[in-house]
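#structure-requests
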Amino acid sequence: MGELRTQRRLWAFLIALALVLVGCGSGSDDDAAEDVATTAATTTSTTEAPEATTAEPADETDETNETETVVEDTASAPAVFDPDGVVLDEEFVPVSPGSYRVDTIGTPFSFTTTEQLMVQPNSQVFFVISDPSNQGPDDRDLVFQRITAFTQPSNPAGTTEEQDGGWPADDVAGWLDALDDGLVVSNREEVMLGGTDALRFDLKLADDFECGEEFCAGVSTNRLVTGLSLSPGASYRLWVVDQVDESPIMIHAAIRNDSGAAWFDTAEAVMSTVAFGPSEPNPIPAEGDLWTLGLPADVPAGSVELPALGGIRFELAQERFIFQNEDEHHFVDTDGPADSELMIIDRDADENPISTVDELIAAVTADSVTAEELASTTLAGFPARVFDLEATSPGRDPSLLTLNATGDAGWRHPLDARIWVAETDRGLVMITAEWFEPDADIPGVIEQSELIVETLEFIELE
């Protein structure tokens, strides 16, 4: 269980950070934070791989972006959408060989696998399956998502502001034709996926490509909720699927290095079985404030209303990135390795129920953590107790300190934290100020969390 929770937090953090990195037009963990930040700094989905990862022979023109599109001639019958396939609506769970249906990205689709796989994120218009030993984004994964824009093809490394709305998502051919030479396109083909028109191509960064300041090289975004950017040393195979009047679907397989090249064969085998149901709208609307829908977004300073915890309102002193989760574990970012977190706790790592502050503190301090109680306060009109927590053994197994929020996600005690806990009519609510490195802006994150606590209201959303 500890390994699955670690992967959940790793993927969640990287997806959240990707929203900042892949802004083309439109988090946080504990001991792993430094490694995660290093990986994510070039990723929304990242990896590079050798050209020898494609089944088709490459000729001398494959290294240019002016290759002629080839229409694939296949005698095999197209896959047919299976509405009766087993619905995959969980995430971070193993998948046995069989036929499945996915509804996460709006338009339903089905696929069959003959191998054991792993479902990674499966929410917020983002569905990922991977090799069971996957260690994070771009490590032998297959990602399904919608897109609302490509990056500017002449400046894929440009900042969010420079992207100026990006390139139309329904013109992938034009985007490829105009793409900067630093993004190497090969094996470009028009194909059919389950009777639906698609364009398939391989993509990677040239060895001498100069990465941008915000991200290395962006490819696409879905209103900054999901997206894809490339990182040096990774290889990608992409399929862009036409949805007529709706946002296109983009699928990509990725590997981090040559040792993962066999993953492309696995991905192709899965893709040969993919078929789509009737086209449905992108679940992320084209207009409106994303945070009011429970989606990750940059939220302006002032009074903010969120569907988190059943509907809340609080004050922000400055614009912050807020990552909301369906499992009621939410993150308010800062400028450094620290954040404020809001959650509802209902059981400990061993599934024992937790309904009181005393029970929560007993679970937190069961191994290698001390708690010092500070002056009490109120939270949303309920009495709240305040504690400073300190990890006395930083090398401990973090799974021993996991507290489960509603659902199957959890919370790990970082290096140090201040927590506010209240027994409310919505459950045991905990708000934290957490930092993951000793040089973090500790006073800043405590001040941010204090403002959230002081101004928090429970509200009923329409």
